[in-house]
Design brief:
about 260 residues, three-stranded parallel β-sheet, 10 strands
């Protein structure tokens, strides 16, 4: 069997193609157990909601998800302007000793949590000029995805569905078009609800999947983390193996030449 190449982002290799968030767990112990079970090596952290040192004297997420063990991916969740997002990630860089890899998301409103593309473009331009390695959350528009790549984003992360919705990949055809033209990793972000959604993303050819609610919001987050790990691995293997073409009618599994009559 051909060895599966690792995921490469901003010059670093990762064996796991599953990226996970840290919100919505009942406590820090469950957070760690789920992340370890998932096999994820990149862990995203909402700087505006989670303490990673900006609140001295309070429990820190880094106590259970240490940077020596995981790649911390600061994100700008709950930012609604480019200015907020840039300020948040500059704070994260200070707290994490010059850490450059970040996830940019600038939201349009509190109801849909869809990206505000105008503000996201502004923030991405500023951050890239300031030497950040930007992984960007965006809509599933192929033109926009290519624009972010051309700007210098190290990965583009189109939504599968609305954040936290569990709807799965609402428009797989747009994801396929994004993948056809991409020269940077494309990772599905937001909307995954269960293992089959993650597997489908990988079968389409995505480089990875980022999720939080699908694991943290499950009845058994630890078991779901295990399921998602396997789904991402299986989907990647299926993509590399190459599925058989879809046919309208049956095709015999056994050859009919030489059959005894």
């Amino acid at each position: 069997m051909t060895p599966i190449a690792p995921l490469e982002i901003a010059g670093k290799s990762y064996n796991s193609r599953l990226l996970v968030g840290t919100g919505k767990y009942k406590d820090l112990n469950e957070t760690r157990e789920a992340i370890v079970t998932s096999g994820a090596e990149i862990v995203t952290v909402a700087i505006r909601r989670v303490n990673i040192g900006q609140n001295p004297g309070e429990p820190s997420l880094l106590d259970v998800v240490p940077p020596e063990e995981f790649t911390i991916l600061p994100n700008t969740a709950f930012c609604y302007t480019a200015e907020e997002a840039v300020r948040t990630l500059k704070l994260a860089r200070e707290l994490l000793d010059g850490h450059k890899l970040v996830k940019l998301e600038v939201l349009g409103d509190e109801k849909t949590l869809f990206p505000n593309i105008v503000e996201t473009l502004k923030a991405a331009e500023t951050l890239i000029a300031d030497d950040f390695d930007v992984m960007v959350y965006t809509s599933d528009d192929p033109i926009l995805a290519k624009r972010f790549e051309e700007m210098g984003c190290v990965a583009v992360m189109p939504l599968a569905g609305p954040i936290g919705s569990g709807l799965g990949i609402c428009n797989p055809y747009n994801i396929r078009m994004i993948l056809e033209n991409a020269e940077v990793p494309i990772l599905v972000d937001a909307g995954v609800g269960t293992a089959s959604d993650a597997s489908l993303a990988m079968e389409l050819g995505c480089a990875g999947v980022l999720m939080n609610t699908a694991i943290a919001g499950a009845k058994d987050p630890i078991l779901m983390a295990s399921a998602m790990k396997k789904a991402v691995e299986a989907g990647r293997e299926a993509f590399l193996a190459g599925r058989i073409p879809r046919k309208l009618y049956a095709s015999a599994s056994s050859p009919i030449d030489g059959i005894i009559s």
